[in-house]
Amino acid sequence: MTLELIPPGLALLLGALLIGLVRGALRSVVVLAAPLLTLWMAWQVPDGVAFDIAFLDYRIEPLEGSPVRRLFAIIFALMAFVGGLYAYRHARWHELAAAHAYAAGAIGVCFAGDLITLFLFWELMALTSTFVIWSGSQRRTRSAGIRYAIMHLLGGVILKVGIEGVAVHTGSIDVQAMMVNNFDTAMILIGILINAAAPPVSAWLSDAYPESSPTGSVFLSAFTTKTAVLALILLFPGEPLLVGIGLFMVMYGIIYALLENNIRRILAFSIVNQVGFMVCAIGIGTEMALNGAAAHAFAHIIYKALLFMSAGAVILRTGLNRCSEVGGLFRTMPLTAIFGIVGALSISGFPLTSGFTTKTLISQAAADETLEFTYFTLAAASAGVFLHAGIKFPWFVFFQRDSGLRPKDAPWNMSAAMLIFAFLCILLGVAPDLLYRLLPYPVDYAPYTAGKVLFYLQLLLFSGLAFFLLLPLMKRTETISLDADWLWRVALLGGARAAYAVLRKAGHALEGAVNRVARKLRKLAARHMSISPEDGRSGVFARTWPIGATALWIAVLLTSYVFVYYL
After folding, report:
1. N or C terminus: which one in the chain shows less Cβ crowding within 10 Å?
2. Is 38:72 a contact under the CB 8 Å cutoff?
3. Which residue in 50, 90, 56, 123 sits closest to 216, CA to CA?
4. What secondary structure letter does DSSP report for 182?
5. φ, ψ at 388 (rounded to 5°)
6. CB 379 within 8 A of CB 459
7. Gap between the Cα atoms of 33 and 36, Å rounded
8. 133 touches 216 (CB < 8 A)
9. Contact (Cβ atoms closer than 8 angstroms) between residue 239 and residue 218
10. Are 194 and 161 within 8 A, CB to CB?
């Protein structure tokens, strides 16, 4: 087997194992070299099934290449490298090992040619990402990780049920396009949508990501939801149901991000919002729409990681997580502020940034299919993104009031990682053809027309004006935003406690009834099976019976038994 036929994820998985075995500078080399080797190997994977193996009555295809698979594998490997550069001097070794194994699972999903291989790497991601969360040092990390694991194990079970159904009913486990027209494919779609953080099962993301370490949240922002996007591209392109789900995700993420005070929860909700753009594009299903979904996922990983890196540097230097606790940090953290602003402009789709050249692909696809409602909803969502991630995050963290904090700027390795991604945000905005040529279908699209640029500039600038006019309503308050997780964190827990109380009372009542019956039986047995010490009278079963009466009773019982037996 040549090197080109080795699944690239195995190199990253080997790197994860070595991180725990080596120490010092050698560990740093492994952290940075393993993703680069994986990136090179991903480039070498040819189109089509590279090799397969027999398993029972199926053909397992652990390595299948295609342009869209390679595109996602490339950005995942690049994310692992830049994330490792950002984290290696501050994260503990087990977090780095878990993060690399997590990235290996994502790359394994990219090249999985069959549903069994996809499921195995899917579950590897769920397991290792839980360890990334548990590597955080916050008090609530453990419980958040448990809730995260429960949701993803549930999603894995649902996905497995669907895969088994497809395998049994069709005899095929190939990763190929399918429609939601039966129970099996519906289960697969639900399992994928859980990983995509589609409401009402999206609260795991905003619950768990902010509880991880500042470095762990950078890795978490990149892989789980975007592997779900890739799975949807491969399995459900053109599924109409996804258009409505995507639009709901878009608006849901905006509303909750505007209500939020926690720095990383704002960014977590914006992940749901941005994935909604991709899900909607997959539902449209045209070549341009699928190009837009893939390109936007690529760009999103970069600018979202950049935003989490900026937030992580603030948290590392100040130890504070809330917008209401910080402010004016641009004075002593100018580089972090600049990089955060670049990420904020990119996520908002500002011209000359990567978000503009990828998000407008999706809008154009909706316009080409005369989906007016979808087009205008996405346009309104772009304005909403500028409100919460484009302005709210950098304004409250780096500007507005002076909190009196004077922390140092980010360490050099964190600044270097942010510089790489900030450069890519601008490069892909200025020269989008560098990304377009990697997309799965030929691109015949010019993002920088006068109409598009003016439309988005007006949209974003008036959105910014509305933010500052309504600034008193944007006041940072200590609030808790209730979400669907209330059902299992509060309502379900309360229901379980109420059911336990009812069962406990029923148990006590049953125990009392049993005790009363037992006491009566004991009294009855004592009366009929003992001799009274007061008058010497014997119970009916304590008396001495003549042998003839005993024989008569035996005969009666035997006759009754024989009668019942033959009846």
Report:
1. C
2. no
3. 90
4. S
5. -90, -45
6. yes
7. 5
8. yes
9. no
10. no
Instruction: Give the C-alpha separation, 537 to 50, whole Å.
Output: 95
Write the DSSP symbol of residue 151: H
- Give, to the nearest 10 degrees, the angle between helix 263-284 and helix 372-385: 160
Q: Determine the angle formed by the axes of helices 115-134 and 224-235, rounding to 10 degrees.
A: 160
For the chain, give the percent of residues with pLDDT over 70.
Answer: 94
Sign of CA dihedral 491, 492, 493, 495: positive
Taking residue 510's Cβ as centre, other Cβ atoms within 10 Å add up to 10
Write the single-letter amino acid at 371.
Answer: L
Q: Considering only CA atoms, which of 334, 319, 347 is closest in space to residue 415? A: 334
pLDDT band at 533 (very low <50, low <70, confident <90, very high): low
On whether the CB atoms of residues 400 and 475 are closer than 8 A, the answer is no
Buried residues in 19-46 as b, exposed as e (16+ CB within 10 A): beeeeeeebbebbbebbbbbbebbeebe
Q: Which whole number is the average pLDDT over 432-446?
A: 91
User: ∠118-124-127 over CA atoms, to 5°?
Assistant: 145
What torsion, rounded to 10 degrees, do the Cα atoms 422, 426, 428, 431 define? Answer: -150
**Residue-wise over 68-88: b if at least 16 C-beta within 10 A, else e?**
bbbbbbbbbbbbbbbbbbbbb
Per-residue confidence band for 225, with pLDDT thresholds at 50, 70 and 90: very high
Q: What is the pLDDT of residue 473?
A: 67
The encoded tokens of residue 276 equal 């909604």
CA count, 13 A, side-chain hemisphere, 199 = 22
How many residues are given for the chain? Answer: 567
152-174 burial, b if ≥16 CB within 10 A, otherwise e? beebbebbbbbbbbbbeeeeebe
What pLDDT, on the 0 to 100 scale, is given for residue 550? 76
CB-count exposure of residue 230 (10 Å: 0-12, 13-18, 19+): buried
Global confidence as pTM: 0.86
CA dihedral 80, 257, 207, 226 (to 10 degrees): -30
Copy the structure tokens of residue 503. 């069962």
- CA Rg, the chain, in Å? 31
| Residues 290, 281 contacting (CB under 8 angstroms) | yes
Residue-wise pLDDT tens digits, 403-431: 778 889 889 999 999 999 999 999 999 99
